[in-house]
Design goal:
Layout lengths: L3 E6 L7 H8 L3 H4 L3 E8 L7 H9 L3 E6 L5 H9 L6 E4 L5 E2 L3 H11 L5 E9 L14 E2 L6 H6 L8 E3 L1 H6 L10 H9 L5 E12 L2 H17 L18 H11 L9 H13 L3 H14 L4 H13 L3 H14 L3 H13 L3 H14 L4 H12 L3 H7 L1
Parallel strand pairs: 1-2, 1-4, 2-3, 6-9
Antiparallel strand pairs: 4-8, 5-9, 6-7, 6-8
Helix pairs in contact: 10-11, 11-12, 11-13, 12-13, 13-14, 13-15, 14-15, 15-16, 15-17, 16-17
Amino acid sequence: MPRVSVVIGASLAHEALAPCLDDLFTQSLYRVGSVEVIVAHPEREADVPPSIQLLRDANPALRLVTVPGDASMGARWNHALEQAHAPYVMLLRVEDRLRPDALDRLATYLVDHHEVDVVYADQLLTAKPEEVYHNTTSSYRWNLPAYRAELMERGPILGTQPLWRRALYTAHGPFSTNYAELPDYAFWLRVGEDATYARYPDILGLCLLHATRLAGLDRDIQAIQHAHGLEPVTQAYFMNPVEVTTDELSALQAIAFSALEGPADLAATAQVFNGFVEAHRFEEAVAHCLRALSLTPQEPYLWVLLAMARRLSGQPIKAIEALKHSLRLGETPDALFEMLQLSLDTGNMEEAHETAQVLKRTYPEWTAQALQVYDEMAAANPTIIAKSA
């Protein structure tokens, strides 16, 4: 049987660690003795919680290793992988769950396909932390694309549970210690086309989404893209802008509106919006924004998204109304940039010039993007060029 090392970097006190381990111990490959589980935790945690100690006593294949200092996720993974024995590796977040035969299927695939270095499968998306694969009520599938370098540059596309050959770590490691959520994304960008990837044709895992996690993922994605000289792409992780599918949009809508009595999940709402826009489904983008605003009417950014959707669907007057509402709630660079775009689209060059100058003065970090759009649209107008000089 193929042997697998499952590596978890987490605090022993994390409330999801014991459920995560319980779920792992149901793996068919674990039950035949072919899985070692390594939990790398901060050295400062001298005491092992009773729930974890019970699991360790009952499962000799579970190893707890300490990492010096209050180590980052990347440092924990590095420390664990230096002690891993199996030829195949999975990095597992404590909040995610596997189908009971996931490790067996993925490991067998690598054994049977010597030319493949990384295999990954679709996952179900859920907003309920208590769910595991066999009892999830989710039917929302995260449809991962086949590997292409240009897609990986826009955001991680291997899901959160790929299985890969440990030799890749020897050749391309270690993991960066600079990122809280996604040191593996920086790793896969570095590996790039030096590896061969395969998408397993089935759903083998469950991925938990919530606002805090999405925000952290987006921060890391943009920081990693910047470090690699790529143009940062916001909200890229769970929405492939090249191959948008109805299932992806439905899944993210469910996350965005998972608590209809409370505020909309802003990060997930924006991702669904991006999906509709990339698919040129502008009327659906409008309806999506209106639904989000019914839950969170005082959020300026949602009004900006509505204005953009109105503009793209050919409703400039309603777009202006939405923008004015956003600006009444508070001036933001998002609103001003959308005002610039709307002014250019409607030929109001005076308004475009004034808005570009406000962006330049007040939000210098937006200057390059704002003035690039402005200059492209205004270059043929000598009056505007004279004013900009």
